[in-house]
Sequence to fold (322 residues):
Amino acid sequence: SLSCVVVCWHAGALTMMEKIAPLKSADIPNDSSLFKIQLRIIEEGWVDSCIAQFYRSTRGRVFGSVIHEDKEGHLGGPSGFCLYIDNKAEVVEVDEFLMQVFSDENVARLSSDTVGFSLQSDHFDHVFEFIESRLGTKHRQEASFFEHHLFVSPCDSTKDLQLPEGFILKQLEPVEYINKMTKQWALELDFHTDPNTPEEYFVNFPFRSTIIENITKRPSFGIFTAENPDKPIAWCTVYSNGDTGMLHVDEEYRGMKLARILLRAAVDTFRDTFGSEYHSHACCQLKNIASANLLSSEGWVKQPFNNKRMYFHEDLLARFGK
Fold:
């Protein structure tokens, strides 16, 4: 059933895009695994707050968007927008859809510092240019970008790896070691450069709330030593868009296959929870060749479309108290 009809003008021609009832994850084809798992984790209750909208063009093509919302009511953030666009769609249809997603009302509510978007489509570059242009008037500064390789997890069951003696694999909890994880993320994102800064300094880091949500709402794993079972030496979490990320192993414990154990725990959790037709995804920075090689060796499949996030460095540092 149709809830409304959106009328758009494009190049002087009157066209129409219908807002339709929400789709289920089972309605999304497997070649759009990003959007498919996004809907599935919403159905599972792994997401606190988001806006899901679906449209059908007059040419019969279906489009969808999921916009994440934080506790302050801001839209976007690191997980940002997850979009579903038919590869066969014409540019005029894509632009009409994007004007609905990035309406004046939604743009006004966007996060002040970070907007990420995920999309598997031949229209990726066009969509990114549209978003960059649409958001260009919101900030006084030019956006910087994170660009990542995007990988899709294998659907086959993974073989168990033996955890080395003296180590413990368990679910992460939102306790004091959040500061350690936040510090590591800030260093990897180049928002902080001094590794000797005390962990307590990062209690106000803007993305700290993302780490807490990842841990409290979705399965996230850490590896601990028997000598210190209260502080992880390796971890990975699951974002609200279904990405497995934040994979980290402390330097002195590398070379022990701990990253592989964490990845396999994440893949098995997705498969056991959702079934083999649903996949997790992982992003790694283009310069991070080691992580890309690790994912490939574990059977993750690199996608032809990268994942991009735009951020506004000055605004982020302002929120960080810099």
